Amino acid sequence: MLRPTWTWPAPVDGHTAAALAGELGVPVPVAELLVRRGFETPGRARAFLDPSLDQLHDPFLMRDMETAVARVEAALASGEKIVVYGDYDVDGITATALLVRYLRWRGAVVEYYIPHRVEDGYGLSLDGVSALVERGARLIITCDCAVTAVAEILAARHAGLDVIVTDHHEPGPAIPAAVAVLDPKREDCGYPDHNLAAVGVAFKLCEALEISAGRSRDTLRRGLDLVALGTIADLVPVTGENRVLIRYGLEMLARTRNAGLRALLERTELAGQKPTAWQVGFVLAPRINAVGRMDAAVRGVELLLSDDPAEAERIAGTLEEVNSSRQAADRNLLVEALALIESTYDPGVDRAIVLAGKDWHPGVIGIVASRVVERFHRPTVMIALDADGRGRGSARSVSGFHLLEALTACAAHLDAFGGHRYAAGLAIRDDRVDGFRAAFQGYARERLDARSLLPTLTIDLELPLEAVDAPLYQALGRFGPYGPGNPEPVVALSEVSARGYPRIVGEDHLKMLVARNGATLDTIGFNMGSLMQELDLNRGPLTIACRLRENTYLGRSAIQGRLIDVLPGDGRSCG
């Protein structure tokens, strides 16, 4: 177990926190956390704790929105064929389904096209454009792609097709000559929130079309289940508009009328409850992502567009089977990757990990790269090589190391690359892998010192165990939904003692009851059995870091601590 370095919370002005707590009616520690996260006034704090759809920005603040709306309305009026061209991940699939459902509701002649990850590659392609010309399309609306597709959109124009781009990736040096390019990351855009997922951008287009038609965004609430699913899956910051969309989307998901989503919820035993963001990200989303990785992503769109419960159940069953195959491929490739690391990796020298192998499935290398980062806390690149010597790579990073900048520095070894700070993809020839590995390692050695190669654990609140009660737990619950940019609060409970005997339950889970001054808390640390050997849990006081959750057993609910780490004593001398 790679132990993290603890970062303790900065002090907060006591008068400010007390005043805020009194104004909001929350415990003082909760007010302290609000101040630390930048919500120091009652107005800002209320807007954060109780997000509202009224906080969404005017969609017409996005560059080219008026032009996009006019072109779509013209297509609706004339009966032109519209094709929604999506991407093969969950964000692209949900954005495609959202737009197709909305356009169908408006009476459009609309079809959809999703490229195959292995056969077609990412984004708008010349072959894809040719296919849409043959289908008789007049207007293409892209989802989650094409902000850098300058040549492909020019080819579409020459073929008589108009293109509206909806994307959220970083634009290249030139903006494509499309009818409209909706991307909040455009430097000339000026839209207040740059962090929307692709499905969020698609939602803003639908919202603008509704406003143009004289209706309010309330007609779009039923589509927020798809917006939440895609936004959570794409790991964009859960701040601003994204947090509003996810909060309301999770409520819609609990009572969704989408037959495909209902079938998926039933398959995962989440039907009848309000899923959390974690359940959406780690239970629902992987089943849709799996078909994009292992099969044809179009099946995910078919599921989300189905209105027939029997058909939806059949497709959901297919997704379940594909996801099981994906999980098996993940496990097998991880075993192979760990064996390679054991024979080639020197933690004292290597500041990054670059692995390549033949016959690796390109659909799962990104997942395995993430697993390697979790274990070794090093920027990791996994490259799948085919029989023709072509390689496709997925990269994942750690805090403080910008992947896209690193790949740009190593561009001489690559055929193509793209991505952002924490995740990226690349294309490479097998005879260039060694040179790329050396260049990437060299870049990492220049940018990462020894301390940055250790994971960090940010403590949000340091509390006595006696302060953990129902009002505190309920108030902290209003900080959700959680995700990047809005992490679930981590609580440090100082100088507690283990009551009874800590024990291992399940495969390797640490179960421990902690106590202090008459107060107790049941805790569990998943896959943390190694701490039984590292620490004498029954000797002397401990400081635990945990997240507070509700645990229900035999019909009774109680607050439980989900352990993250344990340190001896007050924790500060070794954290």
In short:
This protein is α/β, with parallel strands linked by helices and 575 residues long. The chain has helices at 14-24, 28-36, 42-49, 65-78, 90-105, 126-134, 150-158, 198-212, 224-233, 240-254, 259-267, 277-294, 298-305, 309-344, 365-376, 403-409, 433-447, 470-477, 531-534, and strands at residues 5-7, 81-85, 109-113, 139-143, 162-166, 180-182, 353-358, 380-385, 390-396, 416-419, 423-429, 456-458, 461-463, 491-505, 509-516, 519-525, 542-553, 556-568.
SSE topology sketch:
Elements: E1 5-7, H1 14-24, H2 28-36, H3 42-49, H4 65-78, E2 81-85, H5 90-105, E3 109-113, H6 126-134, E4 139-143, H7 150-158, E5 162-166, E6 180-182, H8 198-212, H9 224-233, H10 240-254, H11 259-267, H12 277-294, H13 298-305, H14 309-344, E7 353-358, H15 365-376, E8 380-385, E9 390-396, H16 403-409, E10 416-419, E11 423-429, H17 433-447, E12 456-458, E13 461-463, H18 470-477, E14 491-505, E15 509-516, E16 519-525, H19 531-534, E17 542-553, E18 556-568
Parallel strand pairs: 1-12, 2-3, 2-4, 4-5, 5-6, 7-8, 13-14, 16-18
Antiparallel strand pairs: 8-9, 9-11, 10-11, 14-15, 14-17, 15-16, 17-18
Helix pairs in contact: 1-2, 4-8, 5-8, 5-9, 5-13, 6-7, 8-9, 9-10, 9-12, 11-14, 12-14, 13-14, 14-15
